[in-house]
Amino acid sequence: MPAATETAIRVCPLCGADNRAQLINPYSQAPWEIKTCAKCGFVYLENPPNYAELEENFAWEKTSAAEEARRNTARPLAKRLSRAFRHFRQRVLKRDKLTYLLYRHLPKGKVLDIGCGGGSVLKDLPVRYEPHGIEISKVLAAQADALARPRGGHVVQASAVAGLAQFPADAMDGALLSAFLEHEAQPAVLLKELHRVLRPGAPVIIKVPNYACINRAVRGAKWCGFRHPDHVNYFTPPSLARLARDCGFRIARCTLGDRWPLSDNLWMVLEK
Ligand SMILES: [Zn+2]
Question: How far apart are CA 215 and CA 96, in angstroms?
Fold first, then answer.
């Protein structure tokens, strides 16, 4: 992993408390310092790399490959095979649930996929939707843009907050934040800006790792939701709901199944 040349010290993204004086959470992995907010209990990375580094050195396609290689050398073949199967199953199910929730909450319209990567979700969106996206990695943003253009959409290459600023108010009919919000260093700024860009009543489908899941307690530092330094926010159902409400959204859906503690993931649908 490349060394961090520049990091930003964050206050708690949920309540604004400064936790620099607090001890690091045991799940920290040097030099990345995870803190548990002394005031509200939210768990977050205090010293994430800056955006310029995310764009280049820590770009998702690179850190994923390095992490995969590290995990594979640490595992025997049988475990790798079972993991490959589980990975496939989770990807297929995840895709289905994302589409299912979008269908339930949005009949048609312009959908903005924030952190759209190379466009793997955008390209499979049903024809009733016009796909748009924001992606920080230059390589992936170009790939996704090529997939979105023929369907009338486009992809902006920028950080999420800077990318949203390029959209007019009330421009989008819905948004996807699938495996994204855990990466965003300024989640409240992002959600407020997204609120501006969405038309009234527009849904936001959110999927994040669930820090409150049983697997995290059992697996500890080996829980799949930890990814240093890419993941900077560790949400639980109440903390995600609080953040969303603070940013002006209504919680449209978070069923027991969406926050099932045996799943590593947490789903929530917001509405402007
Ligand atoms: Zn806090």
Answer: 23
